Amino acid sequence: MRTYPIPFNEVQRSAAVQNVPGLTRENHDVFDNLCRATAALLDCPIAHISVVEEDKQWYKSVVGIDLSDMPKDNSFCTLTIMSDSPMVITDLSKDPKFSEHPMVAEGGPQARFYAGVPLVLSSGYRFGSLCALDLVPHEMPSDQLLVVLEHLGKYVVAALEKAPAAPAVTEDEHGHSTFLNLVGHELRTPLTIVNGGLKLLEHRIEDDVVKQLAKSSIKSTDHLAKLIDSILKFSDVSTGELQLNEQNTDLGALLTNLVETHATALADAHKSIEVTNLSTSRPVLLDPEHINICVTSLLLNSVLHGGDTVELSCTHDAKGHIEIHVIDDGNIDEHVELAELYKPFIIGGDVERRGTRGGLGLGLPLTRKLVELHGGEFEVRSEVDRTVACIRLPKWRELN
């Protein structure tokens, strides 16, 4: 399984990395000096400036060790660039994200301490990190030291971009920002009214079936309101970036709630759903709204395109990774190309064939990108007399 997350805007980010004039293999003393300052600041023997490209990581500067290009599976910096804040791991061997990492486990250099800050271009795209490494654990650095580390990271970017003036905000960017604010307001207002009206109706309805319909509708409007808030709060319109709002989540309760929310839609479509296994008893670190979107997409895809029976399960694979399966007894249409699903924002097959039985549905490319943002994998398999959609999340996300 892949060991690194993929940024939501990876295609645009990778293109931006290629277009920075100073981001070449040729090194300069200024970058070595910034690495030496970083190593001294955090009392580490090793420091480097990494550049994270689409399939590998290379180094603008390295001090204290010889490093050549490495695959992203061997990179800590692929996680550093996923946040605005410094990433500090005081003992990599005790962190479930890294304990089996080839740079940490026995047989490798056995790195123990890591502290890095994302390097962000003036355009807003993250291209790499400035970080320090040690082969022994450290105490957590003070906030003051981390602030200095962040400033050193900004000096790296300034040196690469030759300290350009802060880019002026264009009318178009102002327009995007205004548009998002207006959209947020215009969506929230009717949702609030609809939600309130449904709750009033729920208390006045005596018919049990209609009351259940009202409850399902209330849950759907609540879900949509949270989704809108999440998108507006954790997205960047200028770069197409989306960040995770990670929380310790009861995944079993989340999945059970989704089944209850969509039970009416399944019943109306004359389909049944069976929850066969929810084996995650411990909290899972994830963005609950994103996983909501993913599983909802898979359930609705089964309602629209699948067979008569839908099965939902949450188990572990042989290596301990979390697997969420949505299985239905339908077959994928011969016109649907599964390989197309794994291309960036490509729909699996001809849009004109969305109504075919067992089709992929329009939400699945988005599901793939959200799962990859979690460092996970998403696949759809066509098996004998059934279709299997699998969300696989790395095992370190399940907390001890």
TrEMBL record:
Domain Histidine kinase: 182-397
Broadest EC class assigned to this enzyme: transferase
One Gene Ontology term of the molecular function aspect: phosphorelay sensor kinase activity
EC number: 2.7.13.3
Keyword Kinase: yes
Alphabetically ordered keywords of this record: Kinase, Transferase
The reaction(s) this protein catalyses: ATP + protein L-histidine = ADP + protein N-phospho-L-histidine
UniProt cross-references to InterPro entries, sorted A to Z: GAF, GAF-like_dom_sf, HATPase_C_sf, HATPase_dom, His_kinase_dom, HisK_dim/P_dom, HisK_dim/P_sf
UniProt keyword Transferase present: yes
Xref: PROSITE patterns: HIS_KIN (PS50109)
Protein name: histidine kinase
Organism: Sulfitobacter sediminilitoris
